[in-house]
Amino acid sequence: MDYFPAPGRNHLFVPGPTNIPEAILQSMNRNNEDHRSPAFPSLSKSVIDDVKQLFGTQTATSFIFPSSGTGAWESALMNTLSPGDKIIAPRMGQFCAIWINLMTRLNFSVDVIECEWGEGVDLAILKQKLQEDREHAVKAVCIVHNETSTGVTNDLAAIRKTLDEARHPALLMVDGVSSVGAVEFRMDEWRVDVALTGSQKALSMPTGLGILCASPKALEANKHAKSTRGYFDWGEYLKSYNSGTYWPYTPSVQMLYGLRASLDLILKVEGLENVIARHRRLADATRAAVRAWGLTVCARKPEWDSAVVTGVVVPPSLDANDVIKIAWKKYNLSLGLGLGKVNGKIFRIGHLGSLNELQLLGALAGVELALMEVGYPVVLGSGVAAAQARLAKQTPLIASRL
Amino acid sequence: MDYFPAPGRNHLFVPGPTNIPEAILQSMNRNNEDHRSPAFPSLSKSVIDDVKQLFGTQTATSFIFPSSGTGAWESALMNTLSPGDKIIAPRMGQFCAIWINLMTRLNFSVDVIECEWGEGVDLAILKQKLQEDREHAVKAVCIVHNETSTGVTNDLAAIRKTLDEARHPALLMVDGVSSVGAVEFRMDEWRVDVALTGSQKALSMPTGLGILCASPKALEANKHAKSTRGYFDWGEYLKSYNSGTYWPYTPSVQMLYGLRASLDLILKVEGLENVIARHRRLADATRAAVRAWGLTVCARKPEWDSAVVTGVVVPPSLDANDVIKIAWKKYNLSLGLGLGKVNGKIFRIGHLGSLNELQLLGALAGVELALMEVGYPVVLGSGVAAAQARLAKQTPLIASRL
Amino acid sequence: MDYFPAPGRNHLFVPGPTNIPEAILQSMNRNNEDHRSPAFPSLSKSVIDDVKQLFGTQTATSFIFPSSGTGAWESALMNTLSPGDKIIAPRMGQFCAIWINLMTRLNFSVDVIECEWGEGVDLAILKQKLQEDREHAVKAVCIVHNETSTGVTNDLAAIRKTLDEARHPALLMVDGVSSVGAVEFRMDEWRVDVALTGSQKALSMPTGLGILCASPKALEANKHAKSTRGYFDWGEYLKSYNSGTYWPYTPSVQMLYGLRASLDLILKVEGLENVIARHRRLADATRAAVRAWGLTVCARKPEWDSAVVTGVVVPPSLDANDVIKIAWKKYNLSLGLGLGKVNGKIFRIGHLGSLNELQLLGALAGVELALMEVGYPVVLGSGVAAAQARLAKQTPLIASRL
Amino acid sequence: MDYFPAPGRNHLFVPGPTNIPEAILQSMNRNNEDHRSPAFPSLSKSVIDDVKQLFGTQTATSFIFPSSGTGAWESALMNTLSPGDKIIAPRMGQFCAIWINLMTRLNFSVDVIECEWGEGVDLAILKQKLQEDREHAVKAVCIVHNETSTGVTNDLAAIRKTLDEARHPALLMVDGVSSVGAVEFRMDEWRVDVALTGSQKALSMPTGLGILCASPKALEANKHAKSTRGYFDWGEYLKSYNSGTYWPYTPSVQMLYGLRASLDLILKVEGLENVIARHRRLADATRAAVRAWGLTVCARKPEWDSAVVTGVVVPPSLDANDVIKIAWKKYNLSLGLGLGKVNGKIFRIGHLGSLNELQLLGALAGVELALMEVGYPVVLGSGVAAAQARLAKQTPLIASRL
Known about the structure:
4 copies of one chain form a homotetramer. By secondary structure, the first copy, chain A, is of the alpha/beta class. Chain A is built from 14 helices and 14 strands.
């Protein structure tokens, strides 16, 4: 039984954990099984291999850790760097901040590029820092692809270009937690060295898998990386992988079957291209709604607009947390809090994972009602109408129902 | 795997089968068990007893048959009547028509009160027929409480009054398939003799249980009823019930646990009064939307408006089936077909079972998009806005989240 | 939560409802969907067609009713016979008795062949009765293929031969509730006219589907059968079927997906031949155990031994119900009661549905413990050892793991 | 669909992951929800608090990490120790060995007490090492409570006494992965400083939660521990905990609901004392079977016998892996491999988690069949009979069914 039950379904519009499709719940509804049986490697191999398609890589090595995305962050850093190594990292929002905090706690020296919350990384500053680093003391550039706390997406191709122009050999490490599987990600083309995600985002699964891809260059760096590592060590992982048992410790049987079902839904049933287009479409509709309400999105330029989450800035007279509270208490709508320094100033609409047009429109209608309740002079239906207009133009027929 | 999979959730807005809450799915996710074990009667007794609360009766005897609602119809008729017995029954729509067809096939003589589809039973005609029946040849008046094909609800208190005024002793039998558990039902107060429902409607469960309550007068009639009956025989049922084994044949373990969960959600978690108010609220919002679209509801007077389903009449230039098709093919929205003679002329929006405000608003937004696609000059957002305005006024805080 | 919870799994060894495999539970773990959507007929058609393979027929028409097996009985009788029609039916045990009781209540005239419980039908008597019926007043011979209350299986080929030798045109109707899908069934070869089963037996599903196959001859008889029928009427069913909507009333979405999964497991994953061999093997092992305990099986000749359930006769000094009680109270083992006149004299071990060798051996070990508890001088391990010896010889490698 | 499907249930007798009860699967069969909603802390707090009861502590602080038990190991070490710190650790089997390997990789200096596989830690050697460490360079004694690879359980009370007698202030850290929740564990009484377990063992859940309790002394040590830590850092965890949000990163909603259900089953439904007695009973029966087969258990003295897993030593002429293979290929029985240096020499029977007597007897019958297949002269039924004899004496009535 739920703790605060309500009739009908919960409208889950936080940018993770996301809504789980029935096919995934079904596949996870099973007893444990012996992970050392002759049966298990077939499943293991299939998901370890196929997950690479989400990252757009054929050359990388993939790792699946029983952890949240935070564990994947740690794995990326500790397996490629040595204590005291210098990292360049922009601080664009809360998740950048937490990752930088982790870098510091893990004994790296971080050269932070401070950004306004709502902006992407300033490429000119990045370029300058790289060019000034003549001795190549900087070992890694760590980028959050999509900063979930503000709804800002960086242009990874441009960042790659910046490193190239500065002729800097630093590793390019990317937090793709809220982007991989929902947004175009071309690991090989962009020469990303480490990219990572978590199961509770675009994969539309429970939390519990940290998924990581490492380029050949990252694996080479691994050989010389002196950071202390245990649970998240790539070497141990690869030893098990290469022995054919695949896992250095007991994996979650259910999560691996769930991942298989999730990959099937994304890669086979809907198709990754269609998944990405759907995220773009829902995001576009959401932003149209925000504008219709007379509000602004947190991302300050269209080029930074996120396809998976929209930060909505409320007027100074309002507390965004009141919007969130009333949405939950009256309409069973779960919106994302403003985190860190934008708490109370924004609320977030997640449009990530297994979602469709009418789910979004219902949520937007709920946001309007919540805004009205807190005294914001919203025209009921205005945002919905604006979103509908965008969706009417962009939504294709469902492929299986042509 | 589904046959025609689509991203996100299906928006199920047919008036049954309805959306199943997680708590019910969880309770049904179980192996079979021995229905003759000492454990099973506790469960059986609890649901057989508690189901009466939905009907508003303390004096009736309840029956649960493994069947659809159609089987419950047959059980009601065959257990109380004899071949050739005369029945008065209004034909207000498709379900009335099917029930009347069943009566005929079961060898009863039906005096049909023909109604316009969209209207409730004409009480004056009913009264006249009863008064003219001096010898009380009419043994039963059979009323569909809520005609699901048109969205018309009869006033059972008024019908009771009509029988009383005509001093007619006929049994009052009520099809409450789409009303019981969602709409006020006062079996004892209205002296309904047999009332019935099915699990896939207000109970928000899979199809599979026909549930029936019989008044003491109905049980008395049963003693003299000469219709041939086997599977649906009350006598066999009560023999098992009274012996403490409860079931004359193997019941569905899963459905009984599901029924327990459903009754808990309705009676304990939300409260029957709140469930009924919620249905009224969603229905009111739906009709506001229909009016905003410039369309009319099928029910011709407000007194007949149904709290569980709204029939929407499309202009003669349009085919309602096209609206339904595009809603399903593009927006994964399942709307109800127009049945029988209103096929193509109306589509139906079910707002029955475990549903909430934002689910409805999402569906209404989808109807608007579908209407636009078929060429109807709908103002996007107009119906949603009208519905929001009603909901904003009427929706209470969720009780568990005050 | 269960009503009488116990650690570990329940050992379900009643002859129905049977154990449900995970794959079936998974497939049923789903929301309702619109049964009138364009998607649903694909599922409907596939199960209505494939179910015929279990009956061994290509010529019959299959029907799936939302009911228990009892409903299927009624459907068989009422759709082929007229009131007062004469039926020959052996009474070999409780299920024969209940069916005969139903026939009587449904206004048929039953010429009962009384059998000792534990024996199959006496073919000589059957032949004599048929030969004496010169005017062919007997319209049907109704046989329970496997009498679940005693563990006795009739030889349908021999019964067919008996009808043929008597040159009697009566319909041959067979209750295959506990046999179809577990035991060889050759409807076409044996010219069975109506055969039926239920979902909670060999199909290893929840109760809720009555499944029936009717031969062309039975369909011809249907045209002239004057029995009153409503819910179970073949004509209405076929009208819906032929219209492409398939169902005259709301079907259970979950049960149809479950049936699809069950048919896949039986027909594709394991293979019907292997399923049948497995049932034979488990039954043989069970009987070996019974003999090792110094007890006798209820079936009085090996030719009548059932492949799906074994009745175990306890010595007169013991009450079989005590064995059942202690098995359930101490070892969470569910055994079948002795029904009707053998209550207290036998207990039954069901070995039907999704079961394997070690599940059976665990249950046999539990029976030994229960026998010891009630004072029967059983040698612990003796029955298990005898069963193991049989299984060791007969059990093949699991096909998928060769 | 499973990869190597087989009829009936898999007999899962590895010592983890263990069998998941239906009540836990039901509770986990749910969509994601917002872990930052006002509802979530109620659930979080309840499980974080109640988990302490399994450890027998009221004074410790509990931590739940999204990881396997290996992650909990790392968390214990890194949060209490500094690089280069000296640890005493016995190497009694594979899990001791892996933990020691982890200690080394994490930069600790391990003084290994080598043990014969099959023996517990030699307390005299431990005492001597502690007494010789006059300067208290040794900061921790790390003990695997139950060595899962050999089925050997250490006497923690005696180990505590040894530390006390040596007046050594080292932290006592205990791997309770396969013991906590199944075996008596008195953290407070034994003054264990850090104890840990994983969800896939006695808790009978999927893998995915590393659960850890730290004594006040361990928390004090944490303040001075200089090891580098990120994901598994107690400080970050407690910051979140104390803020009322509870989790420093996205937790698994499903696993926390599952943990709630598991704790309810253990603490409320069965009762921890009864759970422990059940494990002891099943272990005793298993060892009786092994002796009846003429084989020996891996644990060399009864005082070391494990209540959760039995290592069975096969004669030198046999390969234990052949037993395991045939059990899986023919009887769908999953036995534990011999790990590391006992590979091929032993197989393991796990009797841990949600299991009962007849499940075990079925598995023992399966082991006999497998032994016979590989040519070992086992008397079929002999082990089962020996186990039955023990169980008959010790098994109580199921509490809910008295």
